[in-house]
Amino acid sequence: MVRRAVAIPKAAKNAFVPPSQRKQVFLPEFVIALARTPFLSPRYAQFRVPLNFNKLDLRDYLQNAYNVGVVSVRSYIEQQPITRITRDGRNIGAWRRPKAQKRMTVELREPFVYPEEPKDLSPWEKESWDASEKWQAKMQQGMQQKSHYAQEPDADARKAFEEQAKELKKAPEEWRPSSKALGLDLARRLSVRTGVKSEK
Amino acid sequence: MHRSTVSRVAQHGVSALAELPPPYLAPSLHFSKSRAPIQTSSFSTTSAVAARRGRDMNRTRGVSAIHGTGPRFPLSASKYPLPKPVSRDQMKARPSTPNHGLWGFFPPTHEALSTTEYDAAFGRPWSVQELRNKSWDDLHKLWWVCVKERNRIATSNLERSRLKAGFGDHEANQRDDAIVVTQKTIKHVLRERFYAWEDASRLYAKGYRPQDQDSMEEAALEEMTPAEDPFKEGSVKETKL
């Protein structure tokens, strides 16, 4: 919907505005995250902030939104290493540098200890996650080594055959056709349907 | 002159020279007859004039933090014993601070990261119809609730990826998306109000005065007969398509 803008009435020129109200943000859209810093004392807390953030922004934000007193702020921007764009699970894309990260470390008036790491990771299903990661990595490796894939022995299949053979040796069963082993007597069904008895 | 010769002379006296080969065979092992004057200089390059005479007035002369000399006279803090370092295991736990503002970055259970179940248990985003009835103050408060929740989710995500804790990324993203929808709805409602204000100010600039209009409408309604009332039931003609 395109509309003709109407001028918003402004405050009178030369009117005094207190410094705390000169940069008012009513509906902030940025997100900041508190990072764990075991190498720092509880007097310090580190935040991941957007790149356009400055120290005064963070101090005012923490004071007004979270009621956290801040003594001092230090900041640095961490440049990210150059990587390639992943395509088909292979790093064959164009080279590019990911967006840099800005971190700000504040000195707190009241010390704050970051909560401990959870010891039991079952709520996040750590085991199955690890298994899926492993499987995915293996599949990717298989994709990458496609040229040699056929020449190399299938270790998993060999192992499976070996185990099956061992089990057969342990408890030798009488061989039966799979139709009988699975309970599908196809010959009998056929005779019932057609009325012709198969030769014995 | 060769150093070994010198040491031999020093040890065995001049008689050692007699055992040396004759000088025409090994001239380097013998003193030369005509010795050249040797140019010498002292090791110190400071001239005697520049050297200090007696004590200066510096009381901390020779006190070094690097060499650990210690102070030359007791300091005011010397009467207190030095604190001894304690290993990390024997350190006392810090008193908990349940009212610290930074707990706002964590779930209400005060855990480092929220569980998958907690992240998945959320309702629906606010709808436009619901938010149209809210005042600016209410909308503003709701916006800040959304902002804080998004910060909390970002903190949890950071910690989960650092720990490699496992699943939970999808649930967190779903929750985040619902919050973003609420935020967009708030902006939508505010935009509607702004447009209404724009229209009203434009009408006002044209000379429209609602109080006059209301009285005019009332007068018009009074004049209107019931049959002409357009809002009466049954007066709307149905159009067949």
Automatic annotation (TrEMBL), chain A:
Provide the residue span(s) of the region labelled Disordered: 119-159
List the transmembrane segments.
Answer: none
Give a Gene Ontology cellular component term annotated to this protein.
mitochondrial large ribosomal subunit
| Segments of skewed composition (Polar residues) | 138-148
Pfam families for this protein: Ribosomal_L23 (PF00276)
Q: Which GO MF term does the entry hold, naming one?
A: structural constituent of ribosome
Regions of biased composition (Basic and acidic residues) lie at 119-136, 149-159
- Which terms does the UniProt entry file under GO BP? mitochondrial translation
UniProtKB keywords: Ribonucleoprotein, Ribosomal protein
Family assignment? Belongs to the universal ribosomal protein uL23 family.
What PANTHER family does this protein's entry cite? LARGE RIBOSOMAL SUBUNIT PROTEIN UL23M (PTHR12059:SF5), RIBOSOMAL PROTEIN L23-RELATED (PTHR12059)
In Swiss-Prot or TrEMBL terms, this protein is called: Large ribosomal subunit protein uL23m
Query: Which organism is the protein's source?
Result: Penicillium ucsense
TrEMBL record, chain B:
The family database entries (Gene3D superfamilies) matched by this protein are listed as:
6.10.330.20
Q: Where is the signal peptide?
A: none
What are the record's GO terms for cellular component?
mitochondrial large ribosomal subunit
Q: Does the keyword Mitochondrion apply?
A: yes
Q: Where is this region: Disordered?
A: 77-101, 208-241
Supply the alphabetized keyword list. Mitochondrion, Ribonucleoprotein, Ribosomal protein
User: What InterPro entries does the entry give?
Assistant: MRP-L47_sf, Ribosomal_uL29_mit
The subcellular location is: Mitochondrion
What GO molecular function terms would the record report?
structural constituent of ribosome
**One record GO biological process:** mitochondrial translation
Q: Give the multimer and partner information.
A: Component of the mitochondrial large ribosomal subunit. Mature mitochondrial ribosomes consist of a small (37S) and a large (54S) subunit. The 37S subunit contains at least 33 different proteins and 1 molecule of RNA (15S). The 54S subunit contains at least 45 different proteins and 1 molecule of RNA (21S).
Family named by the database record: Belongs to the universal ribosomal protein uL29 family.
Please identify the protein, giving its name as recorded. Answer: Large ribosomal subunit protein uL29m
Recorded source organism is Penicillium diatomitis
Q: What is the lineage of its organism?
A: Eukaryota, Fungi, Dikarya, Ascomycota, Pezizomycotina
